[in-house]
């Protein structure tokens, strides 16, 4: 589809800072000009790649607004003369008119001259900006209104913590699966995915209620499934690789503090825990406390000088941990060691919760494991640095409901907060998946390298995802206009912000799948079933007005 | 190319200015139309004008006609010499000229001479004169003309001459909108007057 670009207008005003303005050509239908489009301004020596951020109605004369033309003929003859349309565009990148192989688009530092033609971006333009699809540069969608691949530079993506934001139903889980699938396929980094809702294992239910193949099904042996609930129906078809059990001794007070909301204790409870820990030992107090009977409390109150009501409440709160069968006094195998073994083998880990997908289980497990992994990574990286050898392979930790770990109250202390702030220093980065970015600490948000933003709805969330980004007003308009399965991509892994229609999941499966044959068969089977249904029942659709 | 008086003449010039001329009609039955295109042949140059005023007066300026209350036929039967005492005059605004190298839609270096004859423009001349619609600018610049009516009438005529070419009508409307963009009410009034023919 590459070819001559269609001119949509001429540049008439603007500045680099506030954006440029162009008068829309008379032959262009204003209703076909949408915010978020990629446009190119042809300067004399350079091409300027810009984002269309606004369309406005303009008049040269106040009188025409007071006495508008009444008939179609009058509207037609005034169009383009007394009334016209103005598009606002934000210059992002600049490149030479005839770039050589080495020329890469660079951030725009000037503006094109007056009356430069403004054209729709062509396939060649998009390829010049986002590169051609490849294993480390996979296509994840196409710019809205275009059928051209937009690629994500995975090498850069792995060098920072990243985020996928979007409200429920915006398609963020599907996009996250695609990004993770390509990451696994490319082997640019090892993935540890805390899969709260069981979407990244064997299969995931799509919005339409159909089971889509997920990472394990697509990538087979590259993916190991860890679970705290091996008896979950999730594992009818596939055995998990490891049953996770966590000893009480590994639970630190900081982990419990993070889950204070879920467990229901207050600051007084935290104080009490520290007293218990000091007295009975860091790794023993919890198991001992939970096995105590209430009639034994009097002795503790006496011994530790704590309030007996506070102690009773804390006991009731912490007793909720007993309902999580994977938390035990003693365990057969250490999960973190096993995770490291799998990582050494180059396997990617999907950590599932089965029926225990409560926020409490999720927060505790994710935090405990990540903290220990982080320590290991720091040690390994430091010793590798000291020995002058290459450090461990980069690890991308994916967490859903990220705001639970990165709340401004707790982000300073949690491992996730530390990882997000120190970036790639220890070869460990985060992929945050969340629908409430406003709940995440600003400092963390400003460190996020690449942001993939779907429809958000809430003004506070939109403001939050824009923290620390340039051209916020432009991006805000773009986010406000996103539809389901449309995403704004911006940040470190992309040369310029772009609004995309996410790639079709079926196409992703075909590209990534090791067991493509099996999936192809499944697709064929479903199609045959649908065809049969259609033959039997017809294809009448029920339409709801 | 210059046109010569192949068509029946409709008047003779009796007063000239750079921007307009006054002609006396040849007969009482040949009233030139308001907004019609006319040509004065003068010294190998065709000078084109747009009729903007037609008036019928007594030949003796000291006498005023009186109302007689008769139908036209009866009037001429009872007063057969009446036409001898009446004359028709028309004013035309100069909108262009032709000196053999095509029609130019701007003022000629000199006006037509007195006693030059005036002819109605031929179809091709009207098409050529109204091709780029610059005459609207000339008319708008002249003081004292009924610009809105005149422009609308001339465009309607040119439109009819083109066999109802809507693209021409739109182009004319756009030219008016452009030329009169500081006088929106005037433009609106003209556009309303030409929109009903399309």
What is this entry, summarized?
The complex is a heterodimer of chains A (545) and B (198). With 545 residues, chain A is an alpha/beta fold.
Helix run count of chain A: 21
Terminal residue distance of chain B: 32 Å
Q: Structural class of the helices, strands and pairings of chain B? A: alpha+beta
Number of strands of chain A: 23
Largest sheet of chain B: 6 strands, antiparallel, barrel
The number of helices of chain B is: 7
Multimeric state: heterodimer
Q: Helical residue percent of chain A?
A: 25-40%
Number of strands of chain B: 7
Distance between the termini of chain A: 37 Å
If you had to describe this structure to a student in words, what would you say it looks like?
- Chain A: InterPro entries: HerA-like, HerA_central, P-loop_NTPase.
- Chain A: This is Helicase HerA central domain-containing protein.
- Chain A: Residues 139-372 form the Helicase HerA central domain.
- Chain B: This is Helicase HerA barrel domain-containing protein.
- The complex is a heterodimer of chains A (545) and B (198).
- Chain A has 3 domains: 7-129, no CATH class; 151-231 and 333-505, Rossmann fold; 248-324.
- Chain A has 21 helices and 23 strands.
- In chain A, strands 9-8-23-22-21-10-20-19-11-18-14-15 form a 12-stranded mixed sheet. A 6-stranded antiparallel barrel of chain A has the order 1-2-5-4-3-7.
- Chain A is elongated, with a radius of gyration of 28 Å.
- The model of chain A is unreliable at 541-545 (pLDDT under 50).
- Chain B is globular.
- Chain B is built from 7 helices and 7 strands.
- Helices cover 33% and strands 26% of the residues of chain B.
- In chain B, a hairpin with a 3-residue loop joins β1 and β2 (20-25).
- Chain B is α+β, with helices and mostly antiparallel strands.
- The interface between A and B is medium-sized, with 15 and 17 residues.
